[in-house]
Structures are given as C-alpha cells and as structure tokens.
Amino acid sequence: MHTRINKYLSEIGYCSRRVADRLISEGKVTINGKIPEMGTKVEEGDQVKVEGQRIEKSTKHKNVYLVFNKPAGIVCTTDRSVEPDNIIDFIKYPTRIFPIGRLDKLSEGLIFLTNDGDIVNKILRSRNNHEKEYIVSVNRQINRDFIQSMSNGVEILGIITKNCFVKQLGPKKFKIILTQGLNRQIRRMCESLGYRVLSLKRVRIMNIKLDVPTGKYREFTKEEHLELNGLLENSIKTFD
Length: 240
Known about the structure:
Elements: E1 2-4, H1 5-11, H2 17-25, E2 29-31, E3 41-43, E4 48-50, E5 53-55, E6 65-70, H3 87-91, E7 98-100, E8 108-114, H4 117-123, E9 132-138, H5 144-152, E10 155-156, E11 159-160, E12 165-170, E13 173-178, H6 185-192, E14 197-205, E15 208-209, E16 217-219, H7 222-239
Parallel strand pairs: 8-14
Antiparallel strand pairs: 1-3, 2-4, 4-5, 6-8, 6-16, 7-8, 9-13, 9-14, 10-11, 12-13, 14-15
Helix pairs in contact: 1-2
C-alpha cells in the first residue's frame, strides 16, 4: 500500500479529502510520530494518528450513505468543538460520517452524509453539472423580470452565474435548479436583484429527492445508489 495521506484518511472513512487536507496543514496528523507533508504516502504498517488518536482501517468497514433533511439552524461541519449546533451531534449516527457539500446554517433540506470519501470527491466536481433543486421564498413579490434575470445569470462574487431553470410557484415563491455551487449562491443572486431570502429548502440532489421529515434521515435505496453511481461514472468519463 502506497497511498497519499489525504486519500488514505478518505478511503478508510475518517473524513473527506478536503477535511484531511485541512487537518494535515494544521499539523494534526502524524505518520509514525512525525507530521507529514501534504503529499506524503502511507505504507503498510505505518501508524497514523489524528490529534493523537490512532486511526486504523477496520476490516468491518461498511460504507454508509444517508439522505438527511437538515433543519434550519444546524451547521454542516464535522468540527464539533466550533459549533454546538453541528450536523454530527444532531444526527448522533453510531459510526463516523461526514456531509457531502454543505447547506448554510439558515437553509434547510436535503444533504447527503457518508463515510465514503471517494463519492464525496465525485459529487463535488462542479464541472460535472450535477443538478440540485431548491424551493425559495423571498420578502417581496417576484415578477417576470426577476425569473428571467435569475435564469439568465446574475453577477455575484465577480462572475456571472450559469444559466439555470427557474419557475415561479407563488407571489413570493420559486423553484430553482442549479448545476454550480458557489458560496451562498441563491441568497447572493436574490440580493443582487433587490430581494431577501426568507426560506430556502433543497429538495433534490441529482436523482435523489427529499422524502423524510425535517431532522430525520434514511439510507439510500439500492436503486438510488445504482442510479447515482451511473450518473457519476458518466459525468466523470465525459468531463475528465
């Protein structure tokens, strides 16, 4: 076994590669008692520790894939010391898992949690155009110009957002389907057009729809997992 330390931590289900990179850069990871560089590889028999705790690959390791309906006010972080209202303490799942991507604290709805670091990296590749669907309510009445502007792209964070599907559902309510994941994208888009988001709920990621009550979770069905893997394989082959 010759595996980069960040990939090793991801593959054994400790955390995602992104979190692993942060832990390594903060000096919280050691290999045989020494703090490694970012690209250091783990070899058979090496002793890996995170914050002084030994990390080992379990032969009983089973991949977990959860659909969770995040309530507003819960933070999508695995750092339990920073936020008391974090997603890990809220769910209290019996084995270590971490969220795929994030929803900001005020937003609610569908988020995946897993211990499979590889699927995290595949889903987060924004260039693969994975659809995410949201239902949004704003503080004042929307009109045709608002829908058209949101659909055609809005300037936020120094760039124009990608074209997207937007449909009005009520006087102050709309549905939007995004294929990119800029920081607080929908809220920033609305703000740039003079609107303030009152509620934001994610109801679908790719082929999986939100179908559990707020604060509850379930495992992926076998059919969902197979279809999701197919979508991921096709998009990676297309764009790599």
